[in-house]
Amino acid sequence: MTTITLVQGDITRQSVDAVVNAANSSLLGGGGVDGAIHRRGGPAILADCRRLRASQYGKGLPTGRAVATTAGELDARWVIHTVGPVYQVSGGDPDLLASCYRASLEVADELGARTVAFPAISTGAYGWPMADAARIAVEAVRTARTAVEEVRFVLFDEQAYQVFAELIG
Predict the structure, then answer these.
(1) What does the pLDDT look like over 117-164, one tens digit per residue?
(2) Other CB atoms within 10 Å distance of the CB of residue 112
(3) Of these residues, 34, 95, 109, 132, which one is catalytic?
(4) Which CATH number among 3.30.450.150, 3.40.220.10, 3.10.450.50, 2.130.10.10 corresponds to the domain 3-168?
(5) What are the structural domain ranges in the chain?
């Protein structure tokens, strides 16, 4: 059974097996969580992402999929990159957002990760309403078949933390 925990803080400061990056499809860094992970993790993450782009993800990582790289200087073994849906573009498709969590946990299982830190995927610049995104995230993790022992939702601010806390109970 997977334990779900909540932390208010900086996902790049978490000591876990894998940190999930709310990446853009280019895998080459960006703003928000993506930019923070690339900055704190250092050039090794970008180098791995460039190798992925040069091989199987020449057109970028599709929305809802996940792939792993080194964690570079982060206190983790891996970064699992997943591309969340843009709320306005996807029409708020909950299956696409849930797929980010499920695919990330599948990659975590392939790696043997036991602790995984997730941000609130798609809630920043991608515009997904926090309450709906939190409900989808928690349900996806609770129903996933995974060997991951702890899923840690790392929420940047108090408001996001409270929304998740209401769902976790």
Answers:
(1) 999 999 999 999 999 999 999 999 999 999 999 999 999 999 999 999
(2) 12
(3) 34
(4) 3.40.220.10
(5) 3-168
Q: Are 80 and 67 in contact (CB under 8 A)?
A: yes
Contact indicator for 168, 135 with CB cutoff of 8 Å: no
How far apart (Å, rounded) are the C-alpha atoms in residues 88 and 68? 27
d(CA 86, CA 27): 16
Active site residue 34: yes
Number of residues assigned to the chain: 169
Q: Are 20 and 116 in contact (CB under 8 A)?
A: yes
The DSSP code sequence of 39-50 is: HHH-HHHHHHHH
Q: If you ran DSSP here, which 8-state letter would residue 51 be given? A: H
DSSP secondary-structure letter at 59? T
